[in-house]
C-alpha cells in the first residue's frame, strides 16, 4: 500500500467529459535513522519500500497507505510504520499535508506526511504488506524517480529536520540515554551535513541547558575518559505542528489507465 491508494466510496464531482477521479486521505511516513554506510561512516538514511502492486509496481516509495474506517491520522501513521517495517519510532510528528492529483491514473488524494525518527541499532527490517522489499538509503543517494513524487515529500522532511535540530530536542532521538559530547556533536554533523567546531559546539549546547552531566564517564579507554551526559528534558516532548496544504503534482499516468485500488 502506498500513499495514493484511494479510499473506497470517495470521489470528486464529475464533468460531462472527464472520467471519475477517486479521492482519498492517506498517510506517508518518512522514516529517518542514522546508520553506517558501506564504508562504516554514519549517514542520515531513509527507509524506502519497493511496491509490489500497481500503480508504480516495482518502484521505490515511502511507506504509507489509506486510513481505515474511523482511524485517526496519527494511528494510521503508527500502523503504517509497524506494518511496512516492524520498526518502533522514538518520535513521530505530523509534517505537512500535500495535495496529489494524477488525472491519468484518476487519482486525487490529500497526503498527510509524517516523519519518524528511529534508532535501529542493527534491527532487521522486513517488507510488509504489498511491498517486495524494504531497504535503507542515504538521503543523498536515493533511487531515481520515487513513486508518487515522494522525492518532494522527503525533501520537505529533511528541511524540517535540519531546521528543528537547531532549536529542539531532535538530536536526542538518535542517542542512547547517556552519551558523550562527541556523540551528540556527531549526530548534529550527520543531520546538518557539515563539520562543527567542537569548542563552539560545547559552549553553545551547555548554554542552552539542554543537557546535564550524569556524573559518570566512559570506562575502558587509555586516555582521559569522556564525561557522559543526558538530556535535561523529555526528548519526546517536541512540539507537533499542523501544516497548510501544499500542491503536489504526481508523475503523469498513461492515458486510459485504471484508478489505483487497495
Q: Name the poorly predicted regions.
A: 1-22, 239-246, 250-262
Strand-and-helix sequence, N→C? EEEEEHEEEHHHEEE
Report the sheet with the most strands, covering strand number, pairing sense and barrel closure.
Answer: 9 strands, mixed
- Termini separation: 7 Å
- Please identify the structural class as seen in this structure: alpha+beta
Shape: elongated
Average residue-wise pLDDT = 78
CATH architectural type of the largest domain: Alpha-Beta Complex
Count of DSSP H/I helices: 4
Strand content: 25-35%
Layout of helices and strands, plus pairs?
Blueprint: E1 11-12, E2 21-36, E3 42-51, E4 60-61, E5 64-66, H1 73-85, E6 91-102, E7 107-117, E8 131-138, H2 150-164, H3 181-192, H4 198-208, E9 211-217, E10 227-231, E11 245-249
Parallel strand pairs: 2-7, 6-11
Antiparallel strand pairs: 1-2, 2-3, 2-5, 3-4, 3-8, 6-7, 9-10
Overview of this protein structure:
The chain is α+β, with helices and mostly antiparallel strands. The protein has 2 domains: 164 residues, Nucleoside Triphosphate Pyrophosphohydrolase (Alpha-Beta Complex); 63 residues, Winged helix-like DNA-binding domain superfamily/Winged helix DNA-binding domain (Arc Repressor Mutant, subunit A, Orthogonal Bundle), CATH 1.10.10.10. It has 4 helices and 11 strands; from the N terminus they run βββββαβββαααβββ. β3 and β4 form a beta hairpin. The chain is elongated, with a radius of gyration of 21 Å.
Amino acid at each position: 500500500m502506498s500513499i495514493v491508494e484511494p479510499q473506497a466510496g470517495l470521489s470528486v464531482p464529475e464533468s460531462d467529459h472527464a472520467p471519475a477521479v477517486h479521492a482519498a486521505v492517506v498517510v506517508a511516513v518518512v522514516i529517518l535513522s542514522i546508520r553506517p554506510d558501506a564504508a562504516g561512516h554514519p549517514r542520515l538514511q531513509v527507509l524506502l519500500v519497493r511496491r509490489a502492486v500497481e500503480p508504480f509496481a516495482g518502484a521505490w516509495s515511502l511507506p504509507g497507505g489509506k486510513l481505515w474506517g474511523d482511524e485517526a491520522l496519527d494511528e494510521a501513521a503508527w500502523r503504517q510504520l509497524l506494518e511496512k517495517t516492524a520498526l518502533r519510532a522514538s518520535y513521530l510528528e505530523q509534517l505537512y499535508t500535500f495535495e496529489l492529483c494524477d488525472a491519468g491514473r484518476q487519482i486525487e488524494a490529500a497526503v498527510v506526511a509524517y516523519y519518524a525518527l528511529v534508532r535501529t541499532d542493527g534491527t532487521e527490517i522486513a517488507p510488509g504488506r504489498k511491498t517486495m522489499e524494504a531497504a535503507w538509503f542515504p538521503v543523498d543517494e536515493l533511487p531515481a524517480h520515487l513513486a508518487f513524487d515522494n522525492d518532494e515529500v522527503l525533501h520537505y522532511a529533511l528541511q524540517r529536520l535540519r531546521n528543528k535540530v537547531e532549536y529542539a530536542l531532535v538530536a536526542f532521538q538518535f542517542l542512547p540515554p547517556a552519551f558523550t559530547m562527541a556523540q551528540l556533536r556527531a549526530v548534529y554533523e550527520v543531520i546538518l551535513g557539515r563539520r562543527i567546531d567542537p569548542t563552539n559546539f560545547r559552549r553553545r549546547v551547555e548554554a542552552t541547558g539542554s543537557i546535564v552531566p550524569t556524573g559518570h564517564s566512559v570506562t575502558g579507554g587509555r586516555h582521559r575518559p569522556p564525561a557522559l551526559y543526558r538530556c535535561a528534558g523529555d526528548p519526546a516532548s517536541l512540539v507537533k505542528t499542523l501544516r497548510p496544504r501544499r500542491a503536489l503534482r504526481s508523475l503523469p499516468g498513461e492515458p486510459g489507465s485504471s484508478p489505483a485500488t487497495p
